[in-house]
Specification:
This is ZAD domain-containing protein. By secondary structure, this protein is mainly alpha-helical.
Length: 140
Amino acid sequence: MDIQNINDLVSQPDVCRCCLSANGKWDLTTSYISESGTKEIYSEMLQECYGITLSHIKDWATSHMVCSLCVGQLRDACSFRNQVLSASNCFAEYYNKAKESLIKSEDNIDLLQPVSESFAEELLIPNDGKLMNSTYLYII
């Protein structure tokens, strides 16, 4: 794309700041309420989801617009990001609870109880001296 075409596109009042189409419908800096009832400010969503701050969005008299296609993609990306963060939080919570449980169970371990060699073989507990000196089970 040559400089003249870029100048022509950028100077259009309704050019989409995300894809340069001439279909900008939504103002990036305006607050909207989505169909699901959540507040959306598209410039903030770009920043939160991708870390992108659009240059000169408030400085120049250039377009502040974004097209419907880009809004849909931005919503999907933010939704996916939130899904991943939520899943990550679930794993972190699970890990922390498991860790706490393990610490509590280690505090409550009675004595090591010997088991018979046949029972150990049945449970496939190694008794080769490398992993265990003798066959014991933890009784919790």
